[in-house]
Write a structure and sequence with these properties.
Elements (H helix, E strand, L loop, with lengths): L5 H15 L10 E5 L4 H12 L3 E8 L6 H15 L2 E6 L8 H13 L9 H13 L4 H4 L15 H11 L15 H17 L4 H22 L7 H6 L2 H12 L8 H11 L5 E4 L3 E6 L2 E6 L6
Parallel strand pairs: 1-2, 2-3
Antiparallel strand pairs: 4-5, 5-6
Helix pairs in contact: 1-7, 2-3, 2-7, 5-8, 5-9, 9-11, 11-12
Length: about 300
């Protein structure tokens, strides 16, 4: 693979520097693990991490779901070598079927570790926010992904990561599942966003990403205010503004490992207000009121 010519090299340096100004990589010299699928977003992630001066280990997770998975691993290894990053391939077992995307994300997170850097872009952020809207999520879901060291290229656009790979002369992998209409994200990407662009007569990704930022800021403020409430104090909960009492209860009840839905929160609020003596929640959790205090009990499921 030939190196870029001088004019291209000049454009590459300028383009890379401009992209890095909008990235949130850790300080130069710090070791980072970058998820590298072999596609253009993750390839750009590794390229920019190296350009930022990080000590980069690129990790490819091979799910073994496609006949081309071995080829994807080879492409990822070639990209890492070309960019000067250490490379490691992790092979995992994952069967096709329901909730494939969620299961794949979970296993990647387990293999890569929670501190790994991922190549999510502003386009991914817009898709995530729209998917949350379709699920009826509140501000927490609509806030999308939080920017930071683990998502350092979240302010970049997908066309920019593709352009960087072109300038670098990288041969990247193409994931056929990105066109599979079984996955709702693909329909949002290929149907809903283009329709929204046409209706708005402009590129709506920056608008949705900005809305996510605003909602995330509001969400963090409400969380901080809700943390000042005692979720076991029924009188305090009943008197507090509803958005805060809901958040305080959600945080308290999620400690059992079963994040409560909106209906569950309302049932517990009825107990706090004195409209019910108690209520049952998922995971065999019961909430009862004794005097002015709420008590949460977890009971084992009945034996069969």
């Amino acid at each position: 693979m030939t190196e870029p010519t001088a004019p291209e090299g000049e454009r590459l340096d300028t383009f890379t520097a401009a992209l890095l100004e909008r990235c949130t990589f850790p300080p130069a010299g710090e070791h980072v693990v970058c998820a590298l699928s072999g596609g253009p977003d993750s390839a750009a992630l590794v390229a920019l991490a190296v350009a930022a001066g990080c000590d980069v280990t690129a990790v490819h997770v091979d799910h073994g779901l496609r006949p081309s998975s071995a080829t994807d691993a080879e492409i990822a290894a070639t990209i890492a070598a070309r960019l000067g990053a250490t490379f490691r391939c992790e092979r995992v077992e994952l069967d096709d079927g329901p909730n494939l995307e969620a299961r794949a994300r979970a296993i990647r997170r387990r293999v890569l570790g929670t501190a790994a850097l991922t190549g999510h872009t502003a386009d991914d952020q817009a898709e995530t926010t729209l998917l949350a809207l379709l699920r009826g999520s509140g501000a927490t879901g609509l806030g999308g992904m939080a920017p930071g060291a683990c998502k350092p290229i979240l302010r970049l656009r997908r066309f920019e990561t593709h352009r960087l790979c072109d300038l670098l002369g990288l041969d990247v992998a193409t994931d056929p599942t990105n066109t599979d209409r079984r996955f709702r994200r693909n329909r949002v990407r290929r149907e809903l966003l283009p329709l929204a662009d046409a209706i708005a007569e402009r590129d709506v990704v920056p608008l949705i990403a900005r809305a996510a930022d605003l909602l995330r800021d509001d969400d963090e403020l409400l969380d901080a205010l809700a943390a000042e409430l005692d979720p076991t104090d029924a009188q305090q909960l009943a008197a507090a503004p509803l958005p805060l009492s809901r958040r305080a209860l959600r945080s308290w009840l999620a400690a059992d490992g079963y994040p409560p839905d909106a209906a569950a929160i309302e049932r517990v609020l009825d107990v706090a207000r004195g409209n019910a003596a108690g209520c049952e929640l998922a995971g065999n959790v019961t909430v009862r009121r004794t005097g002015q205090r709420l008590r949460r009990d977890s009971t084992p499921p009945p034996s069969r």
